[in-house]
Amino acid sequence: EHAEIDLSQKFGALPGEALGLLRLAKAHAVKVGLSFHVGSQCMHPISYAKGIRDLGNIIKKTKIIPDIINVGGGFPSIYPDLQPQPLENYISEIKKSFDNLKLENKPELLCEPGRALVAESGSSIVKVVLRKKQKLYINDGTYGSLFDAGVLNFVLPTRMIPNGRMTSKKLTAYSLYGPTCDSIDYMKGPFVLPNNLKEGDYLEIGQLGAYSLTFRTKFNGFYSDQIFEVQDKPIMSMYEKDISSRYLVA
After folding, report:
1. pLDDT tens readout for residues 133-166
2. Which entry of 20, 57, 82, 167 is 20 to 30 Å from 239 by CA?
3. CA-to-CA distance for 176 and 138, rounded, in angstroms?
4. Any long-range contacts for 59-66 (C-beta under 8 Å, 24+ apart)?
5. What is the CATH number of domain 3-113?
6. CATH code, 120-249
7. Which residues pair with 172 in a beta bridge?
8. Cα–Cα nearest to 122, from 148, 143, 87
9. CA 26 to CA 173: how far, in whole Å?
10. In the prediction, which pLDDT does 111 show?
11. 3-113 and 120-249 share one CATH topology?
């Protein structure tokens, strides 16, 4: 309900189906577990509370206490238009809901934070090849490291790398276009950047540490293996209060 990316169309079983599956697993397995996934980039901790309550109902009806309860992933990162509650709120809600099950033998509790931990760790540096008013054509795109921005319409934090020249205080909302022949190689944005961007300028596009490298393809021959480790801070962070000094212009 609160997830930006719904995973329920392909995976999982309804609570009623899970009853029979748990009984079957218990009859054949040394250890059994129950798990759920709230969907990727979950924007409210209450989704985890609901999932744990659903597991509690399954345990009550089957009278089978699992050895493991896994609340899955879905823990969010921060983006310009998606600013979630602090991660500790999610952990607190999970712990409270887990304790409320009041199970005689407590299962091992697992969670799988991914995006929340690593999204901030990666950026792509791209070159503006062409500007047409509010359209920027760049040398990376949906088939490269920007899948989230193109296919999922995530607004990624983006800033101009001035490279010694003055930047305009006036801002413009841009859309980005990748280098391939496919018209879906398009990132709607908006990506808010200085108005005086021009061909040859470079941009840093952040929050790409989670999936960008694994989603890359060599479609149309556009591909880069240049990866550098640096010690600077991310453009945006869930774990810092002030991000304004690093946003829009490097």
Report:
1. 999 999 999 999 999 999 999 999 999 998 888 8
2. 167
3. 7
4. 59/34, 59/101, 59/103, 61/19, 62/19, 62/22, 62/23, 62/26, 64/22, 64/23, 64/26, 64/32, 65/103, 65/104, 65/105, 65/107, 66/22, 66/32, 66/33, 66/34, 66/107
5. 3.20.20.10
6. 2.40.37.10
7. 193
8. 148
9. 56
10. 97
11. no
- pLDDT at site 11: 86
Burial class (CB in 10 A: 0-12, 13-18, 19+), 62: middle
What is the amino acid identity at position 107? Answer: P
CB 140 within 8 A of CB 147: no
Longest dimension (CA), the chain: 70
CA 91/CA 97 separation, integer angstroms: 10
Q: Are 33 and 69 in contact (CB under 8 A)?
A: yes
Please give the span between the terminal C-alpha atoms of the chain, in angstroms, as a whole number.
Answer: 36
Q: What amino acid occupies position 215?
A: F
At 237, which amino acid appears?
S
Domain ranges of the chain: 3-113, 120-249
Amino acid, res. 90:
Y
Q: Are 99 and 53 in contact (CB under 8 A)?
A: no
- The CA distances from residue 128 to 3, 93, 113, 139, 203, in Å, are 32, 44, 34, 7, 8
Reported as a single tens digit per residue, the pLDDT across 97-136 is: 999 999 989 999 999 999 999 999 999 999 999 999 999 9
Only one residue has tokens 């310009």, namely 80
